[in-house]
Structure formats: C-alpha cells, structure tokens
Amino acid sequence: MLSSLIQHSGLSEPEAEDFFSSALNIISPEDVSVLHGDPGSSVIYKSTRYGDLELGLAEPQTEDERKLFGQYLWNAGVLLAEYISGMDREEPSTESATWAVKNEKVLELGAGTGLASIVSVLAGAEQTVISDYPAPELLANIKVNAKRNIPAQLLERVSVESHEWGAVTDEFSNGHAQYFTRILSADCLWSSGQHHSLAKSMLHFLSFNATARVWMVAGFHTGRANVASFFAVAVEAGLEIEEIWERDINGGEREWMTERDSQVEDVTERKKWLVVAILRRKVYSVSSEA
Fold first, then answer.
1. How far apart, in whole angstroms, are the C-alpha atoms of residue 107 and residue 191?
2. Pick from 159, 236, 161: which is nearest to 200 by CA?
3. Could you tell me the CA-to-CA distances from 248 to 36, 264, 265 in Å, in that order?
4. E strand or H helix at 138, and its extent?
5. Taking the CB of residue 220, how many other CB atoms lie within 10 A of it?
6. Which of 17, 50, 84, 244 could be stapled to 277 by a disulfide with Cβ–Cβ 3.0 to 4.6 Å?
C-alpha cells in the first residue's frame, strides 16, 4: 500500500483553512488517504532504493496559495517516485526501463514537495528542473527538500524554477523551449480550468526527440470526468496517449475508462485508484501525391 511508504513526522495542529483538505481523507473508517502531512510539518518517504527521504511541507501565506494544494504530499507523487526509482516491482522488468531517467533532462510541473524530481536526480538524470507556481514559500520549501535529500556532489544537476502553467514567454521558458526529454506531472489535474495551460506548458517544454515523453499520475478524488477532460484537451493540443491505465494503492491494475459504473463511482472506492499515463508528441504522417 502506498501509505505504508509514508511516515509522518513533526505534525502540527491543522488550521481552519486545512479542514477542507482533511475532509478529502475522512469520509468513513474504510477510507484511504489521498494526501499526507500538514502544512509546516514533514513526512518521510521510505524508499527501498534510496533510504528515508524527509520532505518538508510548505506553509502557504495566502488563500490563493492554499488552493494550489502544493502543501501536501499526494499519493500520485509517491507512485510516480516509485516508478522512477525502479522499485515498484519486486522483480526487475521491462517496465522499469520504461521509467528510467538516467541521462535524461527532466522537468517536473507542479512539483509540490519535489519528491519525483528528487528521486530523478538520485536515479541518474542528467539535469532536473523542479518547478511550481511562483509562491515564495512553496519554492523555498522545494529548495530545502532538494538540499536535504540530494548528495552535495549531485546538487549541480538540479535547480528550482517558478513556472505558472501556460505562461511560456519568460526567460526560463524561452531558454528551455523543446528542451526536456522527460516531463513529470503528479496530481496536476484537479482544476479543469488549468488543463489547457498545463497542456500548453507540456508541449512548450517537451523535446522533439522521438523518445521524449510526459509521465503523468493523478488521483480521482476530484472526479473521473475532471481527470478524463485533461486527456481530451491534451490530444487536441498536440499530444497523444502512448499508454494509459489505472492502478490502485495496493498495486492492482485495470483498464483506463473515461466513465465507470454508469458515471457514478463510490467516493471511497474511487480514491483508491490513480490513472497512470505516458504521453508523447503527436506524430503526423506526411502524405505525398503520386
């Protein structure tokens, strides 16, 4: 179970504004947590390959920043880290190679704690950029997490950048257009109003290299229709889905479906599942007249 990989540390009393987020986890005794920790506390990701990684959780200063939910560690981030670390399976498999980042240029969008990026550095990525919304507390916390968990000799391979999805005319965006061979996204689909902007950033930064990919994991806690709408937007924008499936917190897998159980899913059951997707640039065929 994904939650068994997370140990809570230094918990603080939740503020009133955090009760909405806590409600995502407290519906019934059989319910599962989709997020971990409290703002200002820390959690420990117990990686089989890299040991314990302690992740501080930011304390947002404004209501708008709180609504970004970057102050928690989400199950999607844990699962993405597991895939990248290659320890998701008990035995080595070709699937491990699918998620390899060695010698790749990696960008994480909406990084939150930065876990997937930190694991990417440890797994041998040539360069890793950890990005999130330009909120000072959030970015400062990511920098602390990176410095705490990445060996000093590897820190030159990682940087932290502010990036608002869809805003691709700033210095960082201009200097890294079509640059990254791996783009990571963990639980970035909660706001349908941001789907076009997210897809725009992915296409802007994704390399034209034929092997370049976007790796995505997202939970269904905001609804299956909300998640499915992103993939429609992404395809329309110029990405295509190479692989997509659903995985639960215990490792079970099933086919991806845009609708399930006649569009009405039990909320508790829905929260056990995540969608995993690998995207690439759309390949357009060139036809010639005889």
1. 20
2. 236
3. 17, 18, 14
4. helix 136-149
5. 23
6. 244
